[in-house]
Amino acid sequence: MEIILYLAVALIAIAFTVLVVYLSKTLKSLSSTLNNVAGTLAGLENQIQGITLETTQLLHKTNALAEDIQDKSEKLNTVVHAVQGVGSSLQNFNDSVQKVSTSVSTNLEKNQEKINQVVQWSNVAMDVWGKWKIKKQKQEKQPSL
Q1: Alpha helices of the chain — where are they, by DSSP H?
Q2: Structural domain boundaries of the chain?
Q3: CA 145, CA 139: separation in Å to the nearest integer?
Q4: Res 138: pLDDT
């Protein structure tokens, strides 16, 4: 029985040795994998730092652009208000012209008969003046006796 005991202890020792060997290989493989992961993470850290720097620069440029747009928007608002004032002035002028036009039209309709008489009298006066001018030219062309 003692032999069985020695054989059992030897078998346990062999099994333990095999276990240690395989566990050692597994740990070495795990160590290699973790080293690769550490290298990859270091590379990622450098890339993230570059991205962070570029993002910071982009954020500064974006803020500057937003401020510039805000300034230009405020300046444009003053232009819009000025144009609005010009539009109001033109509207008032248009209203005034329309009132004058309406007034003139109304007065013309009221005084149409008088205007017709003035036109007739002016035609008669122009005819008389034309005839007088012709008569005067004839008198100047005739030799005096």
Answers
A1: 2-110, 112-141
A2: 2-136
A3: 12
A4: 85
